[in-house]
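Encode chain A's predicted structure.
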Amino acid sequence: MATTHPHEPAIRELLGSLVGALRAKDLDAVREIYAPDVVSFDVEPPLQHVGIEAKLANWVKVFDTFATVDYELRDLALTVDEHVAFGRAFGRLRGTLADGTAVPGTWVRGTFGLRRDGERWLVAHDQVSVPVDVRTGAAATDLEP
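Encoded structure for chain A:
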């Protein structure tokens, strides 16, 4: 049986807090989870979003689009040492639009790069992606974990 690194529970709690902050549409709580110099490879253009304000701008778009937000993180696997960690998981953003339309969401692949800042952990990098059919360039959005 694999042993768990002593910092793994804190990282799982941090990412669980991210899920809770997204569901609550709490931008201030989301801010506390990311490093100020976070680099995000999100699904929206451009290729990278640099800094906390750019990262939060993506979540503002989501919060403005959805009346209710549900976010799910599944199958989180972590590799942890004393100062850095990375995780991978599947994520799905879904919710209800202001007009009442339910949006079932699409499963994406997520990767998190974290670093320890004193006694707390912060997300310093994240990447969200969807598989692509290389022949057509079309995203494969119907896959499930």
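The first helix runs from residue 8 to 23.
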